[in-house]
């Protein structure tokens, strides 16, 4: 008798032969054999396809036996059946812990059933995505019902105005499902994107103490997330992502209908319209939810035909393409070229453009909308047919990839065994034929996407009208003398050195060992580059700078293709590298920044802070908080990309110094806010939320204070961050998770995690260098202080120089309540009455010590002037301002409202501490010195200039120092 795996492909048969006994140590069980349709051959075929199915049978055979009895796997998995099964699990629930356990065991059953039927092709795509979505709906609704009832017992029932009737009534939560959950198209192993809403403001009634409705629903939402997302001994149910809600991670977890409507009307972005197309009420109060969705419809669907949607979708696709290039995700069937996302973009472009007029397009399911696009004659039947076939193939392949290990992935496998599994699931004889079919579908999708969405100049090539001499020069088909003459005739200022640099590149070992495709791309790119360099005044010097980049992308020639196909990007590259060696080095260190050159408009117009926040939020949406490594890499690329834009703008002269510093400071603040969210989320997932004395939780109570250039809004391109961490929680209490720790330990770990994210060296470099020495007691003090401890230290133990530093401090990220507490302490400390003579002596003494340690040594002062640290430099101005702030804030408390030197000087003039003409002159000198430092940074130069520089400015600063600090 043949073995049950004998008909399987050889690698799978060998794998199953070696593992069959571990799955069935006592032989194939009678109960399984007696189950309809479950012969040994069928079971062998299933567990050959999926390690998840194999491990479930091995580890939980009794549970499988129980759930196969009422309904064999041969029957469809319907929403009605899932709802019925949940009621049986719910019957065992008597507390929150048993609710968590029941949900996770229910998941094991549902996943086993859905994945089995899908991978064996007993179910088609429609059944699989409908069952997976119905399972998610059932879990969310089931958990919410139990938790809502329990929350009402603890805190009373929330009351407010019923949006449908206008009458006072009890309120329930509305849970919106976004993305594939909203469209009833959920993957077999997917996270779920949710938004929590409630009808309106009010308070709870009937509890031991009343809560406002928002607090009630925020706490309910937190418990719902934990019920679904928290990993326990039984696993988890769904990874829950709340970042699509208004304001992302920094926004309230639950918002009233009015707040949601106001946000989308006033601040909703195009990408949020795109996300809201799929939104659906998946749990909670369905009646109230219909009212909410009706109010949001005008935001999603415009009354007019809205062709601007094309541009926003192009921008989103460009952002995804950058991610694909950076991560090497060409084998990602969702994000890569011709993948699922491009089909979704095509369909949703028509929805956003025409959905307001053509109500038939106001649906969520992609295949249904494709059918409408054909019926409305918006797409030809052949295009619809090819997109539909590709979508079904790609989604089936996506489920095959995920069902193998119950793992969320869209990457094609690289190992032979996994490839054999995928080929078997997809009905192909081998991996090669499966891959061929995939490539054909992706090529058709990419073609249709380009025809519908892509820009007209996407296919521009740069090599068309190039003079033949550039090719001959690069390929060394002419002798060295002729090459040098050619270069000199075309404006190269150092032709011999240029020839040598090109020769060195050709003889580079990496170039010598390049594969055929890479060598071809290099040979196409270099002549085009050499010709492009003739557009700048210093082509030889610029080439030497650009060759750093060329060397960096020799093994990633997709970037050469990018520059070949985008003449505008090529022009920006040579222009920026001509003007700044610092930019050239940044591009060489991070070639992904080349993507920023594709759009000259955005390159030279950095966004405002709100747009920065939105850009970061959009970029980080697809990265789970728990994927710390990817979070860190993406943050580094985000920062570098925006600094490149800023440097380009400064070089072009479109941004003055003050705006440059503002922008660099905003960038740091936006990044810090996100880092706090990531670090806090990571710790909460392990230990729960820090409790408050009133029993509540769910707030960070943590804040970051910026000192120095960050606090003073004077960031430069290479500035580090002087930070102090504070929190306003009770250190004696603990967190509310299963692995509870003291609040004090929680916040210390939070601070450590933040520092780790900021200054760990990754392949993309440092995010920011962090200096924590300004915290109370310096390096010997606690990493994170309570506000009370911080205030006590500042009152009783701080040195004068620490109060000077406080003058330039301000809250930059974290909990608004804690930031307000810090600001109150800062104001009180700065306004303390002081002995001005004693204060002046201490400030002068500190300045002399700084000058001795950081300034130019006496024997070199005839040669150089250090703009920042030498006499007559920037630090002299800063110390004068700090002295005057500390000396006069008790008389003029309004002085403390600012933390930056410029506005502090202006305020000192306004209140009469200094003559206005002096504050204006000092301000102009300060800006002139700082501007020089900025410009020199872009040329890779330090802050030292020739000794004769700035004679009038330095003399004026010395005179002011003499008047204020000496006389």
Automatic annotation (TrEMBL):
GO terms for molecular function: [glutamate-ammonia-ligase] adenylyltransferase activity; [glutamine synthetase]-adenylyl-L-tyrosine phosphorylase activity; ligase activity. Involved in the regulation of glutamine synthetase GlnA, a key enzyme in the process to assimilate ammonia. When cellular nitrogen levels are high, the C-terminal adenylyl transferase (AT) inactivates GlnA by covalent transfer of an adenylyl group from ATP to specific tyrosine residue of GlnA, thus reducing its activity. Conversely, when nitrogen levels are low, the N-terminal adenylyl removase (AR) activates GlnA by removing the adenylyl group by phosphorolysis, increasing its activity. Its cofactor is Mg(2+). It comes from Marinobacter albus. Residues 1-457 are annotated as: Adenylyl removase. The keyword Nucleus does not apply. It catalyses: [glutamine synthetase]-O(4)-(5'-adenylyl)-L-tyrosine + phosphate = [glutamine synthetase]-L-tyrosine + ADP; [glutamine synthetase]-L-tyrosine + ATP = [glutamine synthetase]-O(4)-(5'-adenylyl)-L-tyrosine + diphosphate. The keyword ATP-binding applies. Residues 466-967 are annotated as: Adenylyl transferase. This is Bifunctional glutamine synthetase adenylyltransferase/adenylyl-removing enzyme. Pfam families: GlnD_UR_UTase (PF08335), GlnE (PF03710). Residues 45-289, 571-823 form the Glutamate-ammonia ligase adenylyltransferase repeated domain. SUPFAM superfamilies: Nucleotidyltransferase, Nucleotidyltransferase substrate binding subunit/domain. Keywords: ATP-binding, Ligase, Magnesium, Multifunctional enzyme, Nucleotide-binding, Nucleotidyltransferase, Transferase. Coiled coil: none annotated. PANTHER family: BIFUNCTIONAL GLUTAMINE SYNTHETASE ADENYLYLTRANSFERASE_ADENYLYL-REMOVING ENZYME, GLUTAMINE SYNTHETASE ADENYLYLTRANSFERASE. Residues 314-452, 860-935 form the PII-uridylyltransferase/Glutamine-synthetase adenylyltransferase domain. Belongs to the GlnE family. InterPro entries: GlnE (IPR023057), GlnE_rpt_dom (IPR005190), NT_sf (IPR043519), PII_UdlTrfase/GS_AdlTrfase (IPR013546). Its EC number is 2.7.7.89, 2.7.7.42.
């Amino acid at each position: 008798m043949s073995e049950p795996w004998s008909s399987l492909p050889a690698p799978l048969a060998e794998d199953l032969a070696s593992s069959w006994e571990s799955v069935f140590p006592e032989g194939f069980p009678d109960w399984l054999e007696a189950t309809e349709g479950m012969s040994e051959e069928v079971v062998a075929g299933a567990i050959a396809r999926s390690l998840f199915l194999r491990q479930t049978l091995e580890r939980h055979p009794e549970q499988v036996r129980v759930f196969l009895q009422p309904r064999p796997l041969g029957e469809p998995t319907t929403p009605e059946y899932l709802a019925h099964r949940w009621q049986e699990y719910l019957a065992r629930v008597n507390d929150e812990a048993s609710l968590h356990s029941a949900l996770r065991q229910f998941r094991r059953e549902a996943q086993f059933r859905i994945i089995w039927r899908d991978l064996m092709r007993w179910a088609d795509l429609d059944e699989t995505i409908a069952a997976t979505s119905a399972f998610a709906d059932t879990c969310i609704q089931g958990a919410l019902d139990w938790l809502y009832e329990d929350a009402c017992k603890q805190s009373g029932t929330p009351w407010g105005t019923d949006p449908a009737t206008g009458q006072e009534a009890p309120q329930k939560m509305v849970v919106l499902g976004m993305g594939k959950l909203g469209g009833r198209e959920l993957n077999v192993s997917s996270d779920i994107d949710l938004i929590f809403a409630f009808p309106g403001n009010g308070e709870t009634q009937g509890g031991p103490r009343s809560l406002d409705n928002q607090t009630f629903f925020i706490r309910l939402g937190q418990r719902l997330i934990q019920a679904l997302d928290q990993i326990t001994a039984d696993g988890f149910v769904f990874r829950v992502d709340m970042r699509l809600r208004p304001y992302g991670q920094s926004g309230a977890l639950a918002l009233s209908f009015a707040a949601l409507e106001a946000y989308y009307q006033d601040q909703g972005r195009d990408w949020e319209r795109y996300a809201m197309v799929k939104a659906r009420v998946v749990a909670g109060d369905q009646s109230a939810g219909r009212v909410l969705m009706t109010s949001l419809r005008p935001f999603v669907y415009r009354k007019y035909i809205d062709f601007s949607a094309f541009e926003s979708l192009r921008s989103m696709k460009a952002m995804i393409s950058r991610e694909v290039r950076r991560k090497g995700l060409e084998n990602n069937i969702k994000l890569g070229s011709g993948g699922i996302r491009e089909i979704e973009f095509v369909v949703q472009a028509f929805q956003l453009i025409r959905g307001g007029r053509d109500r038939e397009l106001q649906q969520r399911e992609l295949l249904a909308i494709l059918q409408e696009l054909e019926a409305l004659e918006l797409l030809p039947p052949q295009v619809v047919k090819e997109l539909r076939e590709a979508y079904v193939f790609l989604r089936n392949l996506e489920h095959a990839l995920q069902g193998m290990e119950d793992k969320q992935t869209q990457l094609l496998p690289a190992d032979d065994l996994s490839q054999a599994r995928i080929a078997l699931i997809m009905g192909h004889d081998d991996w090669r034929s499966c891959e061929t079919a995939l490539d054909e579908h992706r090529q058709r999708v990419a073609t249709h996407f380009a025809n519908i969405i892509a820009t007209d100049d996407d296919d521009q090539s740069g090599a068309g009208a190039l003079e033949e001499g550039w090719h001959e020069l690069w390929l060394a088909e002419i002798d060295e003398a002729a090459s040098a003459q050619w270069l000199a005739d075309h404006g190269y200022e150092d032709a011999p050195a240029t020839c040598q640099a090109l020769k060195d590149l050709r003889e580079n070992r990496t170039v010598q060992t390049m594969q055929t495709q890479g060598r071809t791309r290099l040979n196409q790119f270099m002549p085009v580059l050499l010709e492009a360099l003739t557009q700048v005044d210093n082509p030889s010097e610029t080439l030497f700078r650009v060759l750093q980049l060329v060397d960096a992308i020799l093994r990633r020639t997709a970037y050469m293709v990018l520059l070949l196909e985008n003449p505008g990007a090529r022009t920006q590259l040579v222009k920026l590298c001509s003007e700044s060696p610092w930019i050239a080095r940044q591009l060489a260190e991070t070639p992904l920044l080349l993507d920023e050159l594709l759009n000259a408009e955005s390159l030279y117009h950095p966004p405002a802070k709100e747009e920065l926040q939105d850009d970061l939020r959009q970029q980080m949406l697809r990265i789970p908080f728990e994927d710390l490594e990817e979070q860190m890499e993406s943050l580094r690329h985000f920062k570098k990309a925006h600094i490149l834009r800023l440097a380009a703008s400064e070089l072009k002269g479109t941004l003055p110094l003050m705006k440059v510093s503002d922008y660099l400071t905003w960038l740091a603040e936006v990044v810090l806010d996100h880092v706090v969210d990531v670090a806090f989320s990571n710790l909460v997932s392990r230990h729960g939320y820090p409790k408050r004395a009133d029993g509540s939780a769910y707030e960070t109570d943590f804040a970051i204070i910026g000192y120095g250039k960050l606090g003073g809004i004077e960031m430069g391109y290479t500035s580090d961050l002087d930070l102090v961490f504070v929190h306003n929680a009770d250190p004696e209490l603990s967190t509310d998770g299963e692995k509870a720790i003291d609040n004090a330990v929680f916040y210390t770990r939070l601070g450590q995690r933040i520092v780790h994210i900021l200054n760990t060296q990754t392949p993309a470099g440092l995010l920011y260098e962090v200096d924590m020495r300004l915290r109370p007691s310096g390096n010997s003090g606690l990493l994170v202080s309570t506000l009370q401890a911080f205030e006590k230290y500042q009152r009783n133990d701080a040195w004068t120089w620490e109060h000077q530093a406080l003058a330039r401090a301000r809250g930059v990220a974290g909990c608004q309540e804690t930031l307000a507490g810090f600001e109150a302490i800062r104001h009180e400390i700065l306004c303390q009455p002081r002995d001005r003579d004693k204060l002046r002596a201490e400030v002068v003494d500190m300045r002399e010590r700084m000058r001795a340690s950081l300034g130019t040594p006496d024997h070199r002062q005839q040669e150089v002037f250090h703009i920042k640290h030498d006499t007559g430099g920037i630090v002299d101005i800063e110390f004068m301002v700090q002295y005057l702030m500390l000396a006069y804030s008790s008389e003029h408390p309004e002085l403390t409202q600012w933390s930056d030197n410029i506005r502090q000087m202006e305020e000192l003039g306004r209140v009469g501490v200094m003559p206005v003409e002096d504050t204006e002159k000092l301000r102009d000198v300060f800006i002139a010195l700082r501007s020089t430092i900025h410009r020199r940074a872009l040329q890779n130069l330090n802050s030292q200039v020739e000794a004769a520089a700035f004679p009038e400015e330095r003399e004026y600063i010395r005179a002011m120092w003499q008047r204020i600090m000496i006389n």
